[in-house]
DNA sequence: CTACGTTACTTAACCGGATAAGCGAGTAGC
DNA sequence: GCTACTCGCTTATCCGGTTAAGTAACGTAG
């Protein structure tokens, strides 16, 4: 009934626990015949190494930690996190590591989680997402000597290893694309202004517009929800010189913006072009389908997990730059009227 | 540098390890003054109980397992899973348990995960989602004596405890609502036909239509993706006697259906009414906003976690019925033309 | 024939806690 | 004044594995 241990195997095989341990771990110290016998018995009674016992020995947890900090309602809607998780998972399961996941309300709660998990030996490392400027998590994680990888720009990751993609390049590509179509007045519905990537996108957006001689763009910040996306769109479209194209920081806000436009009504893409950041099935099901900035998010997660595992096993890891998002042109962008 | 243990505390306090253990666990055997001294030292040097050592002792992992089996692309889009996870999390973190999460390709891989996790003592119990008819996971989990809670109807959960909500009641409410508006020809874009809840919804849909004297409804099954939702909608709308209302099994397909209708063009809700299952922000951002079947998914997850924890601690748990989804009427349903 | 190595194991100890049992000292009851 | 009991702590063991340090039996070289 209870789970078999190496002591059970030892008893069956008529040898000591240690002989069994040697045999099962493929190290010298037992004869080939004894080894075969032990392996056979282990297979027969369905033995599995107890992870707690292993962890206790070599002081490894065999798990990595991930804390998500956005409220449940936005978390669910954005495919980003789920795709990221499935990528991380993929890499971890291949190396038989587990992922400890938790949703936290704020930075303090998140930091307390790292303290606890690390202190209790539950995790070997952590992946930090949604990096903000002067992120309070960075110094804490550094002080804890908790191996960690930051998903975000190296400029704000302190001494922690960063896995990042060049959002500025993606923004440049987008603005160039819109400018080439003939747009001169652009708007941007951005995410949380505290996040590093929001700031970088904001700046790149403004700079590229300036470089191309376009009007100074109008940027409205939101909390990533559809509601605020709709509100921001209405604001942009009621300004005296309304933009002819709007770039959104996620897909749900872009869809909300599309609805707002159609309600006014404004023809998309005839009178208004729309671009979403982070492509998802959602962008393809609405009419017109949304031009979007696509990247391979699961691969991004895999890269982060791989880098962190290297760090955990003592290797020295350098920042990793993942491919920038690329513009996938669909029906929501066109030459302005 | 290395993490402090109770032996360190014992040395500082000049007592034995056992005295420290008693003091830290609030059990008798040490004087109040010694206890206070030990607690002070523990706090000072930042001691945390090593989870592996604890687990090894009382044969508990302090973690529950959850395996998701849908492909990453659909997983990300449906808010359901993320909301469920955040609910489970909420309950678990309150009782300082962890959640082990993994994405599997098929039932076999999922079953192998339960075998491994349980065999290695990594989890104390598991939550099974997406119950199918004759689900192969049920007998395996039963044979393993792995405490488990099934999210799905008790009729297919075998001896496992089920946490479920009455989908048939929700379907009945929906069909009654549409019939009251004057609809007589209904369509349904359903999910995977193998899943138990799909079958129950199918049957309830047909039965309610029959009971109300409506036409026999047309049902098309899909894999939950927007693409198939769009295709199914086109099929339904090109049948000779096309339905005047369509009920979808998730939100993304409903949005895809809305786009298809608007492209034809068919006025929603004037010429076609739409209902989505599982409300999400997505339903509110499109125009017209979608009438949807809402339920408190995080609460559902919390209930599952709570029930499983009770099971794990040896209590006898009975099936739990969560509130059925309720229809939230929005702009996508109206009297037919 | 002794000295030295291997081979194939064993015993002992450890990881960090929990638990059962033991053991002096104080003290209360009769 | 003796037993009996409680208090406050200790020593010994255990959980399930890994690792270091023996130790017989045997082969081989000098």
Commentary on this structure:
The structure is a homodimer of 337-residue chains. The first copy, chain A, has 337 residues and is of the alpha/beta class. In chain A, 47% of the residues lie in helices and 16% in strands. Chain A has 14 helices and twelve strands. The first copy, chain A, has helices spanning 6-13, 17-24, 32-45, 51-58, 72-77, 79-94, 107-119, 137-144, 167-181, 196-211, 226-237, 251-263, 281-285, 297-312, and strands at 63-68, 98-103, 125-128, 148-151, 161-165, 186-190, 218-221, 245-248, 273-277, 291-294, 320-322, 326-328. In chain A, the strands form two sheets. In chain A, strands 2-1-3-4-5-11 form a six-stranded parallel beta sheet, with helices on both faces. In chain A, strand 6, helix 10 and strand 7 (218-221) form a beta-alpha-beta unit. The longest helix of chain A has 16 residues, at 79-94. The first copy, chain A, is elongated and about 90 Å long. Chain A starts with 5 loop residues before the first helix and ends in a 9-residue tail after the last strand. In chain A, 50% of the residues are buried. The model of chain A has no long low-confidence stretch (mean pLDDT 94). At the A-B interface, helix 4, helix 5, helix 6, strand 2 and helix 11 of A face helix 4, helix 5, helix 6, strand 2 and helix 11 of B. Chain B binds a DNA duplex (30 and 30 nucleotides) through residues 5-7, 15-22, 25, 28-31, 34, 49-50, 52-59, 121.
